[in-house]
Amino acid sequence: MDCFTIQIKKSADMDGPITDEDVIEKVSSYDIRKLEPYPECGGHLTRAAVLLPLTIRNGEVFILLTKRSDKLRRHPSAVSFPGGLRDNSDSSDIVTALREAEEEIGLLSSNVRVIAVLTLGFTYPNTAVYPVVGLIPSDFVPVPNPAEVEFAFFMSLKLFLDENHVSYSTYNVLGRTVLSRSLTYCDGKRLANVWGFTANYCTFIAKVIYNHNEFLSVFDDVEEETKPKKLDAGLVDYFNYASETLKAKL
Fold first, then answer.
1. Which of 51, 135, 152, 155 to pair with 99, CA 20 to 30 A apart?
2. Radius of gyration of the chain (CA)
3. In which element (H, E) is residue 199 found?
4. Considering only 35-39, 43-47, 56-60, 227-231, which range has the smallest mean pLDDT?
């Protein structure tokens, strides 16, 4: 089976077309903007925001990702969501995510229907990331900024739930063992490895949309019987641990 065939392969246990309304209803239930007060990351962390651009094609949900330029100082050549550090002029995390998406791939904010801000994420060594989820037109064609993005590509969210396409490894973050998910993108010409923060949030959003409600593991040292039941609890625990550990070192 070639790379392109893998990208469009349908999973037998995920039948039924998905609509915009399905995505909005399911994802909005995890919107942290509903919380009072709105979660703040703390001044000891660098603040950033990313856009998780979702689109629906023939009843299937795809996410738009980028492979970062190898010339960048931060995370060169990594696969990521469009996004970046918050500017002083940004009035919100949503503004940051939308501004960065336009700068990186030419996605106008007027073409994004923001539906949620998910629970905070952490990227090493000290960045708090606000993941903004938005629906974009199915015919959008990204125009990568070569100074920041090598190329942009769409992946089916179903792949992140298909164990035939996901590999696992572990690594240490601030003294604890973290489970790393990894998927390979290949369209016959371009190759990219999706892992870490990006793979975790792709997996999370896929679980939400496709009703896979089992716990999303982030730490590899959590015993099965003690795992919390809420789907995003692993992400919350990871961020809180990283934030508190770094704060204690100040």
1. 155
2. 17
3. helix 196-209
4. 227-231
